[in-house]
Amino acid sequence: ERGTAIPGADALITDEPGLTLLIGCADCVPVYLVDPDLPSIGLAHAGWRGTVGRIAAKTLEAMAQAFGTRSGRVLAAIGPSIGSCCYEVDEAVAGPLREAFPEDWPLLLDPGLRPGRWQCDLWAANRTALIQAGVAADRIRVASLCTACNHETFFSHRASGGRAGRMAALLALNDSESGRGPDDQGSLKDGEGDRGGPQEEEGRR
Q1: How far apart are CA 141 and CA 144, in angstroms?
Q2: How far apart are alpha carbons 116 and 195 in whole angstroms?
Q3: Quick one: pLDDT at residue 15?
Q4: Distance (Å, whole) CA 42 – CA 44
């Protein structure tokens, strides 16, 4: 519902069962975070700026402050988004990425076919940020579905020349889960600060 939208937010958290978190994407990376023990959830929208700002890690921090989440017990998933195969960037993006990941950037940027261009791997960057924030590597799943390669299935801003719609990335706790209440939800801005388990879906809206 429009009345429940949070303008300018690129991450949402909650531990309230039945409250569905939703973000819109069309090439940007949806990052799903689930603490199955508390339980609580977070959903982040990571474009290149959000990736540089470690929005996924900051969402984990917000969950820790609000709910006591420990990153070591979190399950994470990186949904369909643009892959390095199709995400060519120039120095305006490559430079900040190098600064944000000074030791790991050679794994995130491959030289492009044109001078001064790079193929940028946002999946690997966000996975790296999650691992550095304490999430175990074997608890992170990457969909490995490029929205630009598969634009007949997914919306892609780049493949459509900026005329794409948006996909809805959703995450919710089952109503059967116990939670703290409707006040325990929040949001972050981009670059800022089985049954009985989580439900998630991504598709065209």
Answers
A1: 9
A2: 49
A3: 96
A4: 7
